[in-house]
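Q&A log
Question type: sequence-to-structure
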Amino acid sequence: MLVFSVFSISFIYAQEKTLKEQALDEFKKEHYSEAIALLEKAAVESPDDAEVYYYLGWFNHYRAYDSRPLQGYDFAYSEKIFGYLEKAIALNPKYGDAKYFYGAECSANAFNAMYDYDLNRLKYFYRQAFEKGAYPAWLIEFGKNLMNSCDKNAILFTGGNADFDICMYLQLHQNYRTDLTVVPLGNIDRPWYVKFLKNGLKDGVKKINIRLNDRQIMDIHPFKWDTTEVAVHVSKEMKEEFNLAADYQMKWSVEPDLISNRMHAKIESEQAKKRIYISPQRAILLHIVENNFALRPVYFSNFAESTFYGGLNSNFQNCGLTSRLTPVETGNTDKSCDVNKLELLLKSENFKYLPTLKTDDIPRISGAVFIYHITFRLLAQKYKQNGQMEKLEKLIELYKSSMAIGLDEEYEAEILEEMETLRDD
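Response status: OK
Response body:
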């Protein structure tokens, strides 16, 4: 009787869940095909439910690019994804996350265009994303602020779609900061993309110095590795800036980031332990930094997953939306942030379109703008430390007029209170 009752309750609960809710449950279990099948049924039952089409676009996108390779994938599959997302946006023109995934699908096709070195198709998909609303005014402004935090001719490593795609759009369609090479950290484990960065694309992507032949590139894989200190050459200009010796080299302790259950000993006298590796992503990051740091400034977006930095963040100098890679550990030193860069960012003209975020919100990525608030806090602390109270007062007034837009009133009030406390103490 007890078993029957539990079964009955479970059965009734399952019956009470909508098809959409069941689909979400299946997606969480990584049963993507089952989730999509349930959503297709839901679309028949509720043809005016924008959320159903949004999930259909998202889940199909995920199955194609973020799970294992999808057998039989071609552009017709991508067109189906576009169709679902267009339907969601047509039903709800303010559906920011549907616009986000439309942009992400455009980005996936843009990478296919890079694979083929097809500049026209590359530009086409970024234009499509813009026209569908994936890059609203506040995000374009954000992208410009991000790129302007980098010195001329820099390599800018970004975290994902939020920061990479807007930079690509600006370079390709507004001819903005084309001196930069923008590199998504999550994609440098792909051999074809490493080769693409090595070759560059005329009028599209500025190449970087990669000293591997094509055979080595195509053979990129996890490499056996234990924590090793690597010496990286430093430019003459940076040695002078940081008052370093002529023969100084940056020391980078590169740790393995993959582990296997396979037991291994390199030599007979060594006790066997689990084999450890450096991932393709970290191996290529190591190669790019080794071969470019003395030639070009290197910056990292402050939105990337920290594990992507490979320990380099101990040498970061905060520039607001990005951090510059320096040849020394910055820690709690006066090199931990570039006050001039922070001041260049925190000007009212750089936040002209920020208030439009409230009407053109893209929830999956709009939280990135809170780095503005963090930068205000950091600069306020620097002004307090340096006794620059007049500058601190002006910064507070700028925050009130530019940042307190009601996006997150509690958080905005918290930052403002912190700044005013610095002023009043």
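Response note: Strands lie at 155-158, 181-184, 223-224, 228-233, 249-254, 258-264, 273-278, 298-301, 316-318, 322-325.
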